[in-house]
Predict the structure.
Amino acid sequence: MKSSVIVFPGSNCDRDVAVALERLQFKNSMVWHKETELPKSDLIVVPGGFSYGDYLRSGAIAAKSNILSEVISAGKKGALVLGICNGFQILIECGLLQGALLRNSGLKFISKDILVKVQSNKNKFFNKYKSDEILKLNIAHNEGNYFTNKKHLEELENNELIPIKYCDEKGNINLKSNPNGSINNIAGIFNKNKNILGMMPHPERMADKILSGEDGLGLFLSLMN
């Protein structure tokens, strides 16, 4: 499979994603934000980091980059697009995903390992996981508090467009297991066609047993399946 990782000034997880992809034999390209053409790709990754230093609003400036017009076009045509952390923010800012990512409920930057429960595995991103499987992943963000209107929230819940939610060790999904205040403990969402995924946790940081763990590896394996 061929993949492309978009790189912005301030990206700091682009190389981590590249390592995870190349480990699984993806033929990966690093694409600078000023480029105007996207290599032929089965998967496009918009990585985490602090694009443009999070000035103005997280992801807002990056969403206007030259290459994003190509990403938007590819996503609308059905290409697989994965936005992680800042990448999730960018996908919302450019309109590929709906909703908003607000300041964390505690108004502080959070960097720690958390748990999420798989809500749906009937898609191309989570098919290697079991439904209700609990995963240990890492978060590192200041604006990860997902919010959307009532109508869209109902669409997400009723159409299995929320693949993962924050939970505790027993799989309970409640306020105590919610690290940032996200509505309904949402940790990631799909678009209607489930080819575009935005998620705050970093699967690429949990893709090597020796370094941290392998709970995120299944996502990349799912994409290869």
